[in-house]
């Protein structure tokens, strides 16, 4: 699919929409994981034993970027 000239033309004209959507979905997932790791009764993070997994591999949240995440590219294995 990625070797098709029409696909390359669409990406050059419209951008790589599937990659952008996937990047945004991952960002939202990290944000929701971060939000869900807080205890609403105390306003503090849940204890490590009760906390949900930390967002992202480094544990930090990444701000929105209009450019796609290189890990989300469809044409790379």
Mean pLDDT across every amino acid position: 75
Shape: rod-shaped
- The amount of helix comes to 25-40%
The string of secondary-structure elements, in order, is HHEE
Task: Explain what the structure shows.
By secondary structure, the protein is mainly alpha-helical. It has two helices and two strands. Strands 1-2 form a two-stranded antiparallel sheet. A hairpin with a 4-residue loop joins strand 1 and strand 2. It is rod-shaped. The relative contact order is 0.19. The mean pLDDT is 75.
Question: What attributes characterize this protein structure?
Answer:
77 residues, 39% helix, single chain, two-stranded antiparallel ribbon, 2 strands
Topology of this protein?
Layout: H1 5-14, H2 17-36, E1 38-39, E2 44-45
Short description:
The chain is mainly α and 77 residues long. The chain contains 2 helices and 2 strands.
